[in-house]
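Components:
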Amino acid sequence: MVARSQRERLLDAAFDVVAEKGYGATTIADLTREAGISRTTFYEMFEDKEACFLAAYDSAVDVFVRRIAAAFEAEEGWPQRVRAGLRVLLESLAKEPRFARLALVDVGSAGPAAQRRYRAGLQRMTPFFDEGRDFAPDGRRLPANVSRMAIGAVVGLVSDEIEAGRADLLPDLLPDVLFATLVPYLGPAAAAKEVGRG
Amino acid sequence: MPSASPDSSASAPPPKDIGGLLEQERLPAGREALLEPPVAHSQRERLLVAMAKNAADKGYGATTIADICTAAGVSRATFYELFKDKEDCFHAAMELSLADAMGIIVAAYSPDKPWATMVRDATAGFLELLASRPTFARMALIEAPASGGRSFELYASGKRVLQSLLERGRDDPVEEEAIPSSVSRAALSAAESLIVGQILSGNTARLPELLPDIVYITTVPYLGQEEALRQSREAERRQAVADR
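Structure:
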């Protein structure tokens, strides 16, 4: 029980410190101080700074994906499900702008392993998008990578806003990300109509 | 990925000719690039190649000036005669190879071509270039976007040029629906994400196979599904013919 809470404290600390100082400038001493644990305890749990950061990253992505999934599952019909999931995504990121920047923008500079984790995190969104293939009139004709590309479009638009310092305004982006998600599956006419349903 | 002013192309209409676009972004075009040449002659060239290779292999952040000098067989003193610091060297390497990528876009561009054909030809050329230059692919699409600073600005400029070319699809949309002004950025991000995913999973040499998918995602907001699928199949057919 104690071990678990130390681990949780450390993961929280890792996220806060890296968000504050940047990954490169963060030291293990920063992490142990922030979490209130000893250096020995740190090395019992993680091999190095990178392993700790990656674990923190994974656990944060986990929380996010579960939140999105809950909103998605609560609705009927794929366009409404996607709208609900995207809304929660945008609102959650807007509430935690430091997390948003770290998770979507700064992760690129934390080395190859972090980049792979980031990609794996994105892939966890695939099931929400793949349902669009079943919903689309003739979904089997769509290109093999359509869901990957739709995820890339959403993440690109969201990252641009964060990079421009407008993370707090992310919820306003809902019509744009919804259109970008729907258009490859439904075409522009039907996508615009769904966005307009508000 | 991010740009300093994502909506700049919406506020200022892009110049219709590609030369004007490149000038607007202050990007070089049509110059011979030197990355991955058979032999790099000058010390400067060797340093640029070493910089790109190291950044591609272990990441820009982890690359040291000592790594670059050792790989290039050049002294530290010479490095500092040629470059201010590591970032300066990376920027020079990025600038040089970006010239090649822009050359490909220039070659695909012609005001007389149908827009969808231009998108297809430019995408095909770009994917071929990335596949044949894995070092450039990693540097330009993975390390530069993450590097911050001036190299990030170069990457963002290149992306704005591509975005302006895609924007032309708005000139004569087949379907009349109001589409958001962010569609070109969204489509470009979709294509980029797919390409980066392939590079990170070690499939850089197979990037040209993504052509039909990318043709679909970049044209569907403007042309509608039927026409985008037709364009995508056409890209696949031409590719199959070229491979034979």
